[in-house]
Design brief:
alpha+beta; four-stranded antiparallel β-sheet; globular
Amino acid sequence: MLNLRGFDIDFNPYFMSYLVVLLEGERVEFRLYADEEKFKDKKVQDHIQKVGVKLFPYEKIMEDLAALDKQTAGIELNSVNFKILSLVRSKDNKVVDLLDVIPKLKQKKNAVELEGFRKCHVRDGVGLIKHIAWLEHQLNALNRTDIDEYMASENVHEFRKAQDKFMGLSFKTIASTGPNASVVHYKPTKETALKVTNKEIYLVDSGAHYLDGTTDVTRTVHFTTPTEYQREMYTRVLRGNLSLERAVFPNKEQITGAMLDMYTRKYLWEVGKDYGHGTGHGVGHFLGVHEGPIGVGILRTTPFEEGHVTSNEPGFYEDNQFGIRIENLIMCVKAKCEGFLCFENVTVVPYCNALIKWEMLNKEEIDQINSYHKKVHDTLKPLLAGDEITLKYLEKECKPHEAKP
């Protein structure tokens, strides 16, 4: 509500606080209860004064709530703690559940926020493609055998950190290979990290916060020759991802993420396969990388509207062997047909050519990949000047594929 950020929670630009909005007739008063030491910066002080916020010590919230009597209090009951609720209910106060009013307002991004998503994903794409190209070069050209998953995850951080407006990672990087890639939320540590080789699939799921947006992207790659089964399953996952991205649906029909979920799963279902996680989650604008209630999955019942941003991340996991996930962030925008909505993919990182089984794709899908790769190539090439290793990788992965008649 106040457009403020902090760093009290790892990977989340939040600060510990409470906000009370007092309404008395036409008078509105904002009371922010937080660590006052963190508000000494003059720019921050000027901002909160400009928006009419009064700052109080974090602990004073309990005293002030205990003094409330014969008032109507709007509270998000699904997120407030028991002590706060008990204090409000201890007097003759009426409690009204705000439900998810504020999250629903927050999830609908304005034009400035949407443009920020587009811009930060370009810089983020530079960081991630540099990492993947670097890793391929280390394994294939230099024949290194000492790089493990933990080292790879640190390398992702280093390349991202070099990008303009970088403010930190949006979650702990998942850099995984072989059997570890089949664990959906695997996190590498120095003790458990496997060596990354060019003979197994490598999955990297990572993201960052920038001053103008938040990213979350997953790419699955193979640096030599994958098996035919790996190529088939990667292509089925990719087809599902592309299918959701192409979806066009009527705005007035209240289309939810639960209704759209089958777009990404149908090519896996055709061969009796599936994945055991949601297809997409909402993403905040330099806020939480997981921001509900919007998303795609059987439990997502919030209708899509213009300005919503969600991940699109189908996957497939062969237990103890390998894992595949392809994740882009997509924005809900107006379609060409009046009264309809569609998605815009803002992620700018190529797919893995070695893992695509082109003969499984139809012309529409091949054209979609070629168009995306042209966009990635033309966007990133000027930003990679002088980086011959990454430019070579970019050219290889973005080379157009000719569809057979």
